[in-house]
Amino acid sequence: MQAGFQRTPAVLALEDGTIWTGFAFGAIGQRTGEVVFNTAMTGYQEVLSDPSYFGQIVVMTAPHIGNTGVNDEDGESRKWWLSGFVVRAASPRVSNWRADASLDAEMRAQGIVGITGVDTRALVRHIRSAGAMRGVISSTELNHEALVAAARAVPTMEGLDLVPFVTCPESYTWVDGVGEWGLGSRGTKATRDLHVVAYDFGIKHHILRLMAERGIRITVVPANTPASDVLALKPDGVFLSNGPGDPAMVTYGVASAKELLGKVPMFGICLGHQILGLALGGTTYKLSFGHHGANQPVKAYGKVEISSHNHGFAVAADSLPAGAGVTHVNLNDQCVEGLEAPALKAFGVQYHPEAAPGPHDASYLFDRFVALMEG
Known about the structure:
- The chain is an alpha/beta fold.
- Helices cover about 20% and strands about 30% of the residues.
- It has 2 domains: about 10-150, 3-Layer(bba) Sandwich (Glucose Oxidase, domain 1); about 165-375, 3-Layer(aba) Sandwich (Rossmann fold).
- It contains 10 helices and 19 strands.
- The radius of gyration is 20 Å and the shape is globular.
C-alpha cells in the first residue's frame, strides 16, 4: 500500500461471487452500482464528474490515478456522480500547477467511495469476459457473503430511468466558451444569430462550451420539458444530451424528440443519440460491457476517428426505418456509433465528439450542426 493513505481495508464484491480486496480512499462507506471499466489514460476528473456514470462503479485501466489532483475548471457538471471508483494505485501526491485539491480529498468531500490496491488488470479481463455486472464497494462492511448478497440486490441497468436524478431542476442560459488552454472562459458572446435549446438528460459542460465557442446562444432545459415549451422558445436547433440509464425508459424524452422531428434541426450525443433513434422508430439494446474510454476507433465517411466513449446501450442498426441510416460504426464490435435522417434534418452520434477527456477528431460535428441550422 502506498504511503499517504490510512490502511483501512475495503472490498469490491461482484454479483457473480468474485471478491476483490484493497484499501479505502476517498469517502468511507458502502456504495452499489453497475461495475464498468474505462480505458482512458487520463481525464479521471472528467470521468468522475460525468453524469452519464450515475449508478455505476468505474474501474480505471490506467494504473496510476490521482497524480495531477483535481481543479475547478475541468469538471463536467455541478458535482461528481458515479457510485464508486476502483484503481490500481491511488497517488498520495499531487504534482500539477492547476491542482486545487487532491483526488482523495475531493472524493471525500463529494462522498465518492473508492478502493485502491486492486489488481485492475485482472478485474478488467474478468468484466470483459463476463460482462458488466452489479457490484458493491465497502469500507465499512467486510463480510464477503453479505456484500455479494448486496450486489445481487442491486437493480439491473436495463429498465432504469436515471435521468431525473441528474437533470437540471430548471432552465438556464449557458454562455461560457472554451477559453485559453482549453479551460472554461467566462461569458462568451454570441456571434451568430442562432439559438439552441439543449435538453439536459445529464449534459456535460464541454458540449455546451464547444457550442458557445461557435457563437451560439444556448438555453438548457430540464429533461421533461414538453416539445411545445421548447418550440415556444423559437430555437434554430434542438440538442439532445448524454445521460445515464436505459434509453428506452426515457419515454418523455423520446416523445418530445418525436414531436420536434422535422420542425427544427436536431443533434443528439450518447443518450441523446439513442433517444433520437427511438424517436425515429428504432430500438436499443444493452451491450455486454459497453464502451468507456478515450481511444475507441470509429469509421465515418470513409475515415477512421479515434474517439471518446461512455455508453452501455446502442441503437440496433436493422431497426432504423426508411429515411434514416447509419453513418458511424465502431470498428471493435460494429455497433452503431452514428445515424442521420437527412429529410428531417436530424443526426446523432453515440460517442462524445466534445471529448473531455479524449481526442478531438470528431469536433467537426458541432460545425455540422451549425451548418444544418444556418442552411
